[in-house]
Design goal:
It comes from Altericroceibacterium indicum. The chain is of the alpha+beta class. The protein has one domain. Helix content is 38%, strand content 20%. The chain has a three-stranded antiparallel β-sheet with strand order 1-7-6, with helices on one face. A three-stranded antiparallel β-sheet has the order 8-2-9, with no helix packed on it. The longest helix has 29 residues. The protein is globular, with a radius of gyration of 20 Å. It starts with a strand and ends with a helix.
Length: 225
C-alpha cells in the first residue's frame, strides 16, 4: 500500500473493475435503493471481527455472478466497493495497492493528466471514496439501531435447481418484520426519524430478488444444457 502521488504515479493507468466472479459484495445504506432493484440485500458477519455488515448477493455459490452479463444491471447498479477497488482512504489522503491487477502502465485510462491534475476517472474514484466514507458511517449507525432493537434475525434459505443441485445459503441475516411490529410507538418513531424505517422495508422488499436470481440460474443451466 502506498499514498497516491501525481509524480510517482504519473504514468499509471487503471482498467475497469470486473465483478464477473463476485457472488457477494459489501454495500452501504446509500446504495440500498439501487441494489434492491436487482438483487437481495442481507446482513452477514465479518469472519475476523464478528461485526455485522450489509451486502448484496449476486449468485448462490462462490465465483458465481448471475448479473454481470446483464448490461441493464450495470446501468442500474454497480457497488461502490467495486468501483473503488484498489483505492483506499488513509487519513485525508488516497492510498493505492500498486500490485492490484487494475493497474497498468500500458492499458486502461490514465490517473493523471499531463499537467498532473487528476483525470476524469480518478475524479470519479475520489467521489466514490467520499460516498463510501459517508455511507460507511451511516451503515454502522443503521446496523447498531437494528441490534439495539433486536431486529436482526438469521435466515435459512434452501434452493433446489433444475439440475438437481440443492444450495443452502448460510450466514445471512435480515430484519425481522414481526419483531418490528412489536416495537412500541416511540421506538418506531425513532427509527423513522433516523431514516432507518425506509431502509428496513427496502431490505425486506429486496428478498423477492432471491427467486428472480434463482430463475436466472435455472435459465443459465438450460442454455448450457
Amino acid at each position: 500500500m502506498e499514498l497516491l502521488d501525481k509524480q510517482k504515479h504519473a504514468d499509471l493507468r487503471i482498467q475497469q473493475p470486473s465483478w464477473r466472479n463476485d457472488h457477494f459484495r459489501q454495500i452501504m445504506v446509500n446504495e440500498f435503493s439501487a441494489a434492491a432493484s436487482v438483487c437481495p440485500i442481507f446482513l452477514t458477519k465479518n469472519p475476523e471481527t464478528g461485526d455485522f455488515y450489509a451486502g448484496a448477493l449476486f449468485g448462490f455459490t462462490a465465483n458465481e455472478n448471475l448479473l454481470a452479463e446483464q448490461p441493464e444491471i450495470a446501468g442500474a447498479f454497480q457497488p461502490l466497493d467495486l468501483a473503488r477497488e484498489a483505492f483506499y482512504i488513509t487519513g485525508e489522503n488516497i492510498s493505492i495497492d500498486p500490485e492490484h491487477s487494475r493497474f497498468s502502465e500500458t492499458a486502461g485510462e490514465p490517473l493523471f493528466e499531463s499537467d498532473g491534475e487528476p483525470s476524469d476517472v480518478l475524479r470519479k474514484i475520489q467521489r466514490v471514496l467520499g460516498q463510501m466514507n459517508i455511507g460507511m458511517a451511516e451503515t454502522e449507525r443503521f446496523i447498531a439501531a437494528l441490534l439495539a432493537d433486536s431486529l436482526v434475525e438469521p435466515l435459512d434459505i434452501s434452493l433446489r435447481f433444475d439440475d438437481g443441485e440443492t444450495v443452502n445459503l448460510q450466514g445471512l441475516y435480515t430484519v425481522s418484520l414481526d419483531r418490528l411490529h412489536e416495537l412500541d410507538d416511540a421506538q418506531v418513531l425513532a427509527l423513522f426519524r433516523a431514516g432507518h424505517l425506509q431502509l428496513i422495508y427496502t431490505m425486506a422488499a429486496s428478498l423477492k430478488q432471491v427467486n428472480i436470481l434463482a430463475h436466472r440460474r435455472n435459465m443459465r443451466l438450460t442454455a448450457a444444457a
